[in-house]
Design a protein that fits this description.
Elements: E1 5-10, H1 14-22, H2 26-31, E2 35-40, H3 45-54, E3 60-64, H4 69-78, E4 85-89, H5 93-98, H6 104-123, E5 126-129, H7 132-138, E6 145-147, E7 172-176, H8 183-199, E8 203-207, H9 215-218, E9 223-224, H10 231-240, E10 245-248, H11 254-257, H12 262-269, E11 273-277, E12 293-295, H13 299-311, H14 313-328
Parallel strand pairs: 1-2, 1-3, 3-4, 4-5, 5-6, 7-8, 7-10, 8-9, 10-11, 11-12
Helix pairs in contact: 8-13, 12-14
Length: 333
């Protein structure tokens, strides 16, 4: 078997690179004797990366989301020097650019990325999308699109923290660890969280949004709003931090319809049972009442489901255990 070389050209999309290639596919390639690496191509690093690439003809490339403009122009000129090119995408960039519920700066960044995407698709032999719906949209622009749902790349913890009884004075930890792109989703269930934190004293709420957390939530009792972390620091935090309940609201928008069920794996990696929006992609992996709860957009329903989990700690732990078992089946083998 001929030894192959695979390189990820990194424009900073570390979560995408790690989840969909470097910590999932790459170990299998290495086990077969192939070389796999990552080349940083932003800023001053591009000069070194270009030198490396120019001396490795036939290398297979992995592109994730975007490339700096000068790198993309160079790759378009030199396309014939390389082997297979795989393009990984985990968001509907065009839909994000048009979604007025998203922060303006985020929309502008997604608009620039969406404008570049046709050129990246033209370079790619294969496109890998994170969900069936996103793949369907990309099929209109590329003839070879396949789905790779997110694999589990994190260790699963024991559930010793569920020994803490919320009725015995030790608050259960409820976590929302979405980005600012999910502020509108969070706002939809805000009334449920406000009622929960004001009416009970057995919950601690964590919103990893820092200064971007909605003020009406940030000022609630027993609520902590840590600043968002870089990907490596978040991975470390996720490995050390435990939650009992994870929140994954998701409104029905064109942008959200392209999402994957990665939050299910994130919540399982922190030892929690998730409460999820009752729509795809979560309906693809969550069995209601078994490995999580599926809830419609009504805040009162979210409030009832959260209260039920708090009042039934044994059932909550059983669902967290079932979620871990489901997540384990998504390790790429």
């Amino acid at each position: 078997m001929r030894r192959e070389r695979w390189l990820v050209l990194s424009d900073g999309a570390r979560p995408t690179e790690d989840i969909y290639f470097l910590e999932s596919v790459a170990p299998h390639l290495r086990s077969k004797g192939h070389d796999v690496g990552r080349l940083e191509v932003r800023g001053w690093r591009w000069r070194l990366a270009r030198w490396v690439l120019s001396r490795q003809p036939g290398t297979h490339l992995v592109l994730c989301r975007t490339l700096p403009e000068r790198v993309l122009r160079w790759l378009e000129r030199e396309r014939g020097a390389f082997g297979h090119i795989r393009y990984l995408i985990d968001d509907d960039l065009a839909a994000a650019a048009l979604d007025e519920s998203l922060p303006a700066a985020y929309r502008e960044r997604m608009a620039r990325a969406a404008a570049q995407q046709p050129r990246l698709l033209a370079l790619a032999d294969e496109v890998v999308a994170c969900s069936t719906l996103l793949a369907g949209r990309l099929h209109e622009q590329h003839g070879n699109v396949r789905v790779m749902t997110p694999p589990l790349i994190s260790a699963l913890p024991d559930l010793a923290h569920f020994a803490e009884d919320p009725s015995a004075g030790e608050p259960w930890r409820i976590g929302f660890h979405g980005t600012r792109a999910h502020l509108a989703d969070l706002a939809r269930i805000a009334p449920a969280l406000m009622a929960l934190q004001r009416e009970r004293d057995d919950t601690a709420l964590e919103l990893m949004l820092g200064q971007h957390a909605p003020i009406e939530l940030a000022e609630l009792p027993r609520t902590h709003c840590p600043v968002p972390l870089s990907w490596p620091k978040f991975r470390d935090y996720q490995a050390r931090h435990r939650i009992h309940i994870g929140l994954a609201p998701l409104l029905d928008t064109p942008f959200n319809r392209g999402k994957s069920f990665i939050k299910f794996l994130d919540i399982a990696a922190m030892g929690g049972v998730g409460v999820y929006a009752n729509r795809a992609p979560y309906t693809e992996i969550v069995e209601h009442g078994v490995n999580g709860l599926l809830v419609d957009d009504d805040p009162d329903e979210w409030r009832r489901c959260l209260a039920w989990l708090l009042d039934h700690p044994g059932e909550a732990r059983a669902m967290a255990q079932a979620a871990a078992e489901t997540a384990r089946r998504h390790i790429l083998r």
